[in-house]
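ok so for the tutorial part 2 we go from a plain amino acid sequence to predicted structure tokens. step 1 is just haveing the sequence, like this:
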Amino acid sequence: MSFGMYAASVPAFLQMLKNLTAILEKAEAFAEERDIEPEVMLNWRLAPDMFPLVRQIQIAADFAKGTTARLAGAEVPKYADEEQTFAELKARIAKTVKFVEGFKPKDIDGSETRDITLAVGGQEMRFKGEPYLVHFALPNFYFHATTAYDILRRCGVDIGKRDFIGMTS
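step 2 — the prediction. this is what the tokens look like for a chain of 169 residues:
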């Protein structure tokens, strides 16, 4: 049995989105316990030229929904990018999970050679399905998920590798 495009994408997106929700819950509790205004953490960034936590989560969710839709040849839903609280970020993730869960292997498997075209920074990029997933979408998804994790670690939230990969009890 071959390893299909669905198996390479949807389960990875769903696991990491679930893990990001758990990490956000820990961050929210951390802020409350220490009387830290949530906006401080939500707007924290690792470097002046990097996006803050809110945007990292938004982009991770965008890659999950966008990649899944493009591989299936479906329309990519647009989100308003207006989240300003932990609850709103968790709701965005939940909406993304529900969207991604709506796809079945038959919708995505066989998309290795599907033409994928998207605009990035005002420039059109063209891919075939497999290189799009393996060399562009998954690395970007994990970059933004990792950066969100790193921001929260930098803020002092007690999270570790097990939280990131979803091995907590």
